[in-house]
Write a structure and sequence with these properties.
alpha+beta; Beta Polymerase, domain 2; 2 domains; five-stranded mixed β-sheet; globular; NT_sf
Length: 185
């Protein structure tokens, strides 16, 4: 569990180390519904330094700040910070192999505020499209939980926007079917 306070402090620390990024993971949904638990980790699309061409910058940053350094399932940097007495795993991604976030998703990201800290974040609809496209077992579980939030009235989703964003991918119909199956659209 990453608390809002630890999340905000981790974001401050990354920003002070000149990392530019956009929030792309499950924290997007947690923030939208006002949850106190923002998930097990923080998933970021790294804009600078580039995680592929400049991985050593992240390794050096981790070493300089006494953070644990490892790799994500995709082989990109994973930094674990100790913040406010909590471990905050931060996973940094870029478009690599089958992992793809359209440039439009990043460029249209907006700033959201968590504990007084503003962070650039993709929208709920963007996240849903990415999650439905991935389609792994853990993604299906997340969509099921999100469907419960939608059905319970805790999360609003713009169906038209989801349909538009799904058009960024060849798998548009699969994405929309998965979201319908979970009662999200």
């Amino acid at each position: 569990m990453v608390s809002r306070k630890a999340f905000a402090q981790a974001i401050r620390m990354l920003t002070s180390n000149n990392v530019k990024f956009t929030l792309i993971g499950g924290s997007v949904i947690a923030i939208a519904v006002g949850a106190s638990d923002l998930g097990d980790d923080v998933d970021l699309f790294a804009e600078s330094p580039n995680v592929i061409d400049n991985e050593d910058a992240y390794r050096a940053m981790a070493e300089a700040n006494s953070w644990d350094y490892g790799q994500t399932w995709l082989g990109t940097p994973r930094i674990t910070m100790l913040v406010e007495g909590e471990e905050v795993p931060v996973e940094l991604y870029d478009n690599l192999y089958d992992f793809y976030v359209p440039e439009d998703f990043i460029s249209s990201a907006r700033r959201v505020e968590v504990e007084g800290v503003k962070v650039k974040s993709i929208g709920v609809e963007h996240y849903l499209v990415l999650k439905a496209r991935a389609g792994r077992e853990q993604d299906e579980e997340a969509l099921k939980e999100i469907g419960g939030l939608v059905k319970g009235g805790r999360l609003r989703v713009d169906r038209g926007r989801v349909e538009e964003l799904a058009g960024e991918f060849d798998e548009r119909q699969v994405i929309l079917r998965r979201l319908r199956e979970h009662g999200i659209i």
